[in-house]
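Curious: can you check?
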Amino acid sequence: HRDHVILIDAKTARGRMVETLTHEVLHACWGAMPNAAAGMGVEVKDPEEFAVSRLAPFLLTVLRDNPRWW
């Protein structure tokens, strides 16, 4: 992840490849957020909503910029 490269074995089944790519892209999106952990040390009323709201704009950018991946 330090090199900003995601490597997936070409022999991986398509469904598993997309799932793995999505998983790794979410890690990248989380890491790209300014102060990614901000708010994590305080009480969050809805942790799921907090995480989704923080990640959604970054994931949407990835999807729009790379439509052939999905």
